[in-house]
Write a structure and sequence with these properties.
It is elongated and about 45 Å long. The chain has three helices and no strands. Helix 2 (17-40) runs antiparallel to helix 3. It is mostly helical.
């Protein structure tokens, strides 16, 4: 089993605090879009979100 080096990861996170926090904010924003669509039973919006995610992934290769 792999061990986490929390000292090393803490240092890396803190050295890259601003860009990392920005990325985390973006992930949270996207998750919130999914949550709202799911809670609202909004199949059309959920389908669009999933399609967008698939298309973005395909573009990355």
């Amino acid at each position: 089993m792999a061990k986490l080096n929390e000292t090393m990861w803490s240092e890396l996170f803190l050295c890259n605090a601003e860009p990392l926090a920005t990325e985390i904010d973006e992930i949270i924003r996207h998750l919130d879009e999914y949550r709202r669509a799911i809670r609202a039973g909004d199949r059309e919006n959920l389908t669009a979100l999933l399609r967008d995610g698939r298309e973005r992934k395909e573009k990355l290769g």
